[in-house]
Amino acid sequence: MTTTAVRRPGRNEPCHCGSGRKYKVCCLTKDEVTDRAAHAVLAAEAPMPTADAPPTTRPPKHQTHQPWKQSSTHGFVPKMRTPRKMGGG
């Protein structure tokens, strides 16, 4: 995919068409439409990925030795919590 590097004016600079208006008022939307169309054509020409390619998988997580994060509940005592509101009033 090759694109031509045309420097577009900033939004508040004078328009490149010579109208004397700001670029954002004059030609910004027209230029964006042509850029989208050109990008769509280039995307259509790009080769599609084949189904034979292996699926991408994540590498395994880094394992560290952390004995305090063991899955056992030994030594864990849940706190008894009272409800915020008691009584019926």
Can you tag this structure with a few keywords?
2 helices, 89 residues, mainly alpha
Explain the overall architecture:
It is a single chain. The protein is an all-alpha fold and 89 residues long. 25% of the residues lie in helices and 0% in strands. It has two helices and no strands.
3D shape: elongated
Helix content: 10-25%
Count of helical segments? Answer: 2
What is the alpha-carbon Rg in Å?
Answer: 31 Å
Count all strands and give the number: 0
Helix- and strand-based class? mainly alpha
Strand content: under 5%
Task: Report mean pLDDT, rounded to a whole number.
Answer: 78
Low-confidence stretches: none
* Gap between N and C termini: 72 Å
Write the layout of secondary structure elements.
Blueprint: H1 23-26, H2 28-45
Question: Could you give a short description of this structure?
Answer:
The chain is mainly α and 89 residues long. The protein has helices spanning 23-26, 28-45.
